[in-house]
Write a structure and sequence with these properties.
about 450 residues; alpha/beta; Rossmann fold; N-(1-d-carboxylethyl)-l-norvaline Dehydrogenase, domain 2; 3 domains; six-stranded parallel β-sheet; 14 strands; globular; binds nicotinamide-adenine-dinucleotide
Length: about 450
């Protein structure tokens, strides 16, 4: 099938590459000329495991095209994906300007029936706004073409996006038109062979499903962080508690890791957006507000530990920081807890030597102008002349470091671990002072 994808970001590019891989003829449109030109040269704008070879292969074999020519994009596919960003606007609501811009573009250029699939995460009622925006442009043009607007939220996880799109756990389709369902069954048939993953519903329910999913996941994290903070005060070990509750099949072990707060482009903005949606209809979302508050506080946890150990004034101190991305296997630093840590350390006069396996370019882009940040080539190099080590992201490669080297290289044998990677007792025996999340007082 001929498919057009507007927006070549984490969602659009991965979805496009995966659709091309199963044989669809996919044209990607983005307003970012540099991104489009780079993609044509094989330069992939994001780090996502398995993505580069997939994009290169399908581009070279002609099933995947990149362009800034919106008109060509609109005429290419019956199916038009909207996969542009929906960042928070000033009050935290989802900013729909990119989504409605694409809707108007499609209406501006369409000369036949189009099925517009909204992959962006958008508040309930957005499909109606997209429909109105398109109809207004068609009215201005004085033409009448049929079109459908479908909610098709994306559930991929950054860091496992290719695998998630190749083998989705579910394909949520929100539509009021049965004929569209047949078109989408054909589109998603290659991903639907093992069992039927398509969950059909009305548009508003599909839009809310995406927010409900992200808010539930954020709630699990904030819940565990709250219990971790209690454990810390009560002299209990959250890691033991985690295993104790995870063994209950109604709770399960997934996604109940305490840490230094959730980040990324989705959880913070989607929790915030659902809070705003609730407020707009006069409902006070007490649980979601608490989820957000707990998370904002949790991001201050590591700097608080540092100050507890070294004092308020950190002038003259240098910290090694391992991990900058908001989670492993991505270069994405949007809303990462590392950013709160770095900015707090700098505000207290400290210097930082940081290493991340994939987010160094992104860190350079965001903080490259600062002379109190040194981006180091290896995790070991980050330790040289550093007063202590701080861990923000649970990259595999950080799980079993050479602790003798760590002890001999750091000025003080102190580790602040925002991801609970190590055994406190073992580190204690080796002479480290080890701060972790919810594991009792420092030892
Ligand atoms: P992104 O910022 O990585 O990419 C968005 C792209 O859209 C950019 O390349 C931008 O240049 C392009 N764009 C903006 N306006 C455009 C226009 N008028 N025409 C064509 N292209 C345009 O965003 P993302 O992380 O891929 O997220 C996209 C949407 O998907 C958001 O609503 C997000 O909440 C949702 N989502 C993201 C994830 C994730 O893990 N990143 C997962 C599920 C859902």
């Amino acid at each position: 099938m001929k498919v057009t994808v507007f927006g070549i970001g984490y969602v659009g590019l991965v979805q496009a590459a995966v659709l091309a891989e199963v044989g669809h003829d996919v044209m990607c449109i983005d307003v970012d000329e540099t991104k489009v030109e780079n993609l044509k040269k094989g330069v992939i704008p994001i780090y996502e495991p398995g993505l580069t070879p997939l994009v290169m292969k399908n581009y070279e074999e002609g099933r995947l095209q990149f362009s800034t020519d919106a008109q060509a994009g609109v005429s290419h596919g019956v199916i038009q994906f909207i996969a542009v960003g929906t960042p928070p606007d000033e009050d935290g609501s989802a900013d729909l300007k990119y989504v409605t811009a694409v809707a108007r573009t499609i209406a501006q250029h369409m000369t036949a029936h189009k099925v517009v699939l909204d992959k962006s995460t958008v508040p309930v009622g957005t499909a109606e706004k997209v429909r109105d925006a398109m109809q207004a442009v068609l009215n201005e043009r004085g033409v009448e073409y049929p079109f459908d607007v479908v909610s098709n939220p994306e559930f991929l996880k950054e860091g496992a996006a290719v695998a998630d799109c190749m083998r989705p756990e579910r394909i949520v389709i929100g539509t009021d038109n049965d004929e569209v369902v047949n078109i989408l069954r054909e589109l998603y048939e290659p991903f639907n062979r093992n069992h039927d993953r398509m969950i059909l519903m009305d548009i508003r329910s599909a839009e809310l499903t995406k927010y409900a999913a992200n808010c539930m996941l954020a709630t699990k994290i904030s819940f565990m962080n709250e219990i971790a903070n209690l454990a810390e005060q009560l002299g209990a070990d959250i890691e033991k508690v985690r295993q104790g509750i995870g063994s209950d099949s109604r709770i399960g072990y997934h996604f109940i890791y305490p840490g230094c707060g959730y980040g990324g482009s989705c959880f913070p903005k989607d929790v915030q957006a659902l809070i705003r949606t609730s407020e707009q209809i006069g409902y006070t979302p007490r649980l979601l507000q608490a989820v957000e508050t707990v998370n904002n506080e949790q991001k201050k946890k590591l700097p608080t530990f540092v100050v507890r150990h070294f004092g308020e004034d950190l002038k003259g101190k240098t910290f090694a920081v391992w991990g900058l991305s908001f989670k492993p296997n991505t270069d994405d630093m949007r809303e990462a807890s590392s950013r709160v840590l770095l900015e707090t350390l700098w505000s207290k006069g400290a210097k930082v030597q940081a290493f991340d396996p994939e987010a160094m370019d992104e860190a350079q882009r965001i903080y490259g102008h600062r002379d109190d940040l040194s981006l180091m080539g290896t995790k070991e190099a980050a330790l040289h002349n550093a007063d202590a080590l701080i861990i923000c992201t649970e990259w595999q490669n950080f799980r079993a470091p050479d602790f003798d080297l760590l002890k001999n290289t750091l000025k003080h044998p102190v580790i602040f671990d925002g991801r609970n990677l190590y055994d406190p007792e073992r580190l204690n025996k080796r002479g480290f002072v080890y701060y972790a999340i919810g594991r009792g007082e420092s030892i």
